[in-house]
Amino acid sequence: MTPSAALDGPFLLDGHVHFHPCFDPDRFFDSALANFRKATSAVRRDAVPAGWLLFSESSGMDYFRRFRTAAGRPAHGGWIFHRTDEADSLVARGTGGGSLLLVAGRQLVTAEGLEVLALCCDADLDDGLPLPAAVEAARARDAIVVLPWGFGKWWLRRGSLAARFVRSARPTDIFLGDNGGRTGFLGTPRLFRLAARRGIGVLAGSDPFPLYREAKRVGGFGFALDGTVDPLRPAAGIRRLLRTEGRPLPYGRPVGPLEFLRNQLMIRVRDSPAAAGRHRFGA
Question: What are the boundaries of each domain within the chain?
Answer without folding.
Answer: 8-275
